[in-house]
Amino acid sequence: MANRTVKEAKNVHGTNPQYLIEKIIRSRIYDSKYWKEQCFALTAELLVDKAMELRFVGGVYGGNIRPTQFLCLTLKMLQIQPEKDIVVEFIKNEEFKYVRALGAFYLRLTGAAIDCYKYLEPLYIDNRKLRRQNRAGQFEIVYMDEYIDELLRNDRVCDIILPRIQKRSILEENNELEPKVSVLDEDLDDEVPSEDEAKDTEDAESNRQKNNSSNSVRRPRRGRSKSKSRSRERDRDRRTAASGNARSRDYYDDLEEYDRQRNRVRNTQNHSSNYNDDHERRQTGRNENRQDRERDRRDRDRDRERERHGDRERERERERERERERERDRGSRYDNRERDSRNERERRRY
Questions:
Q1: CA atoms 106, 53, 39, 34: torsion sign
Q2: Are 178 and 77 in contact (CB under 8 A)?
Q3: In angstroms, how far is CA 77 from the centroid of its own chain?
């Protein structure tokens, strides 16, 4: 009786409102402690107080599919089916964000497409943070506008499959909804300059370029004196002739230095290659030693297992031998007893 839909409730999307939640989740909600203790005999007025106590949204969590309080209150709203004005007041509530989230989720489950776009799209300007519990039981941060966008676009929210609604473009073509006007468009219109402002900016830029070109004066290049250039060339030739031998020695010294540098680089490369080869050989040796140790360990384990198996077999053989001895003792005692009884009977007869 406590889990039945009220008699005055109407079918939603052609079915019982509670059937909008899957059977397995619905049965888990009925078995939950919060549903039995806090949701029993709730009315629309008392439901508001319970919604104000919500601290997060979410569906089910954990390995045994435990429902959240948000989902329990959603099923309770589907069960008592509050009036549309109450749901709209839930959505317009700006003080308690989880009350707004609960009303938006219920309207998305039960409302028509026009009502969903009409009442949920204005909530895109709400940027408050919501805590949502995922399937692993951990909390994550989601924003209200993000949550509303999931309700209007996704097929499953809070582990509940949402009913399909018509696309907004189709409703706009049928003149059932007005074209969407975004707040961002108004901000972009304010930032874009008008044609007069753009013209004034271009004129000011062109005037600035003209002033810069008129103020810039090129200095003439001074011509070089031919006599000075000739004297410089003669001095350069003289110095070249005087220091030809020294320059040749410097040249050979540079060659020797270059050869030494090249040999040093080659030696470094050879050393690095030798080091790499040694490292590879050491690594290979380590691997081989490790493989040998593993092989020896496996052989020792195999030998130990064989010894244990042999010990167990010998113990079983000894146990069987002891059992045979006991059987023989029991047989001999039985034979002696029979013999004694037979002798006693013979003695009594004579």
A1: positive
A2: no
A3: 33
Nearest 5°: phi and psi at 139? -95, 145
For Cα atoms 35, 104, 141, give the angle at the middle one, nearest 5 degrees: 80
Digit-coded pLDDT (tens) for 181-232: 776 666 665 555 556 666 677 777 777 766 665 554 444 444 444 455 556 6
First to last CA, the chain: 96
253-284 residue pLDDT tens: 777 777 878 777 777 776 666 667 777 777 88
19's CB contacts (< 8 A; 6+ apart) are none
**Which residue carries 């050989």 as its tokens?**
281
* CA distances (Å), origin 169, targets 174, 175, 187: 9, 10, 23
Cβ-contact 26, 61 below 8 angstroms: no
Q: What is the 3-state secondary structure (H, E, C) of the chain?
A: CCCCCCCCCCCECCECHHHHCCHHHHHHHHHCHHHHHHCCCCCHHHHHHHHHCCCCEECEECCCCEECHHHHHHHHHHHHCCCHHHHHHHHHCCCCHHHHHHHHHHHHHHCCHHHHHHHHHHHHHCCCEEEEECCCCCEEEEEHHHHHHHHHHCCEECCEECCCCCCHHHHHHCCCCCCCCCHHHHHHHHHCCCHHHHHHHHHHHHHHHHHHHHHCCCCCCCCCCHHHHHHHHHHHHHHHHHCHHHHHHHHHHHHHHHHHHHHHHHHHHHHHHHHHHHHHHHHHHHHHHHHHHHHHHHHHHHHHHHHHHHHHHHHHHHHHHHHHHHHHHHHHHHHHHHHHHHHHHHHHHC
Tokens of 142: 């989601």
Please say whether the beta carbons of 44 and 73 come within 8 A. Answer: no
316 CB neighbour count, 10 Å cutoff: 10
Tokens 């026009």 -> residue: 114
For 126, the token pair is 């709400």
Q: What is the DSSP string of 26-57?
A: HHHHHHSHHHHHHSTT--HHHHHHHHHT---E
- Determine the Cα–Cα distance for residues 119 and 91; give it in Å rounded to an integer: 8
